[in-house]
Task: inverse folding
């Protein structure tokens, strides 16, 4: 495939390589940006290690944030510089929210009452915050929550996919692509 050329980074200036960070995650973010440039439609990059934050949360985050932040910022900047960000949806999220208080092991446990997602590109307006928790971070503030299904619907909408489309499974069971609604307040 001609798309394999995206993995050849010999033509990438050293300063640009350094911006992503000399980590597996940083290199994967650079590869993701280059794959998007050559037309790959869906790319996933994982930074593992967050789930061990059930113990020693702060130490775990201090170890992972210096890898995540520069690579994610470099990914968005790279796509923007190359005029690809308008056509590419970028998400940064985990699999679950975390408790606002530390547990007995100085960690944080799973928490469905608060969850953060960073979104960029694809017609999503920057600099907006949608939703909030109460001041203690323990519960979603009244009428402020955003269902995960709305995030899915937003991504599909920005990609030109009809989020309300209902398909039949091979056993003729109807299945909607999303039960959510696009977050119009995030759209340009």
Result:
């Amino acid at each position: 495939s001609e798309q394999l050329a995206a993995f050849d980074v010999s033509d990438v200036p050293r300063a640009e390589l350094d911006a992503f960070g000399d980590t597996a995650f940083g290199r994967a973010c650079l590869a993701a940006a280059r794959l998007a440039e050559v037309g790959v439609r869906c790319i996933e990059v994982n930074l593992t290690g967050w789930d061990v934050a059930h113990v020693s949360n702060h130490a775990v985050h201090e170890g992972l944030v210096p890898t995540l932040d520069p690579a994610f910022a470099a990914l968005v900047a790279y796509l923007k510089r190359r005029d690809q960000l308008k056509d590419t949806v970028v998400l940064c999220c985990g699999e679950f929210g975390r408790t606002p208080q530390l547990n007995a092991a100085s960690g944080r446990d799973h928490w469905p009452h608060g969850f953060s997602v960073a979104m960029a590109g694809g017609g999503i307006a920057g600099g907006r915050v949608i939703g909030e928790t109460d001041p203690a971070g323990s519960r979603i503030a009244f009428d402020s929550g955003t269902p995960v299904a709305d995030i899915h619907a937003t991504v599909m909408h920005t990609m030109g996919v009809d989020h309300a489309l209902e398909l039949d499974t091979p056993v003729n069971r109807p299945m909607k692509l999303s039960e959510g609604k696009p977050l119009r307040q995030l759209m340009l």
Remarks:
- The chain has a mean pLDDT of 92.
- The two ends are 35 Å apart (CA to CA).
